[in-house]
Amino acid sequence: MALISIEDLDGLSDEQVDDDITDSSEPMDDEQQDRMYAHWQAVGRTHHVSVPREMRGPIQEMTRRNTEREQVPSVTVSIHEKLGEVLYEERMYPPGKWACVSKGEVLYEQSISNSFMKLMRFICKENSTGRYLGMSVPVVNEIKISEDGSKFMKDVVTAYYLPAEFQANPPEPTDPDITIIHRDTIRVIARVFYGTTTEETISHQISILWELLGNSEDVHHDRYMVAVYENPGVPQRRNEIWFIRRGP
Predict the structure, then answer these.
(1) Beta bridge partners of 88
(2) Structural domain tally of the chain?
């Protein structure tokens, strides 16, 4: 999900990614499809990812349905503020079914980008129902950190929460790389940040939240989650860094 930053688009003009494409609920014509596909290719190149032509259909489907997004259910436990600014908040996410892809590419950005493209195809009809499943947010990337805290481990899990309609009876993916899993209740400490999600920016956000929390043994030090709320075409998109509580 982290293919993105308008600043990274290497000079794409407004005419190449018109508002009437991203806001329209109508199917795109061939010219609009070509322009949107070129936009995604350009974004992908900034993170060393190739966007295959078979992504044209899912890109069109998800772009025109951009406003139809279901929130992953959660309960706010507490909000921590300073001088009117929210520093972080604590939430509970109930048990649920998630579609997950694990990748271990050279770069973190490659892993999550390639995983999200697989999930896009699953959402857009490559499933046992043969229909569009609907988008839920946030998409969550789970990362593990080396014991000394100096680097990200290769394997990154990208997870999409199945919309409420499919929680009781999840559709089967046609892609064997996608696994439907049940996740138990999770309690997280979440802090918002905006822009790209790279190993560098995530490491920075982890450091900021540790400074705010202090050294706590109540949260995991070796794994974190990055929650992404916006689609790949949105500049300065909203993300969150999640620290994971050890107990519910």
Answers:
(1) 80
(2) 2
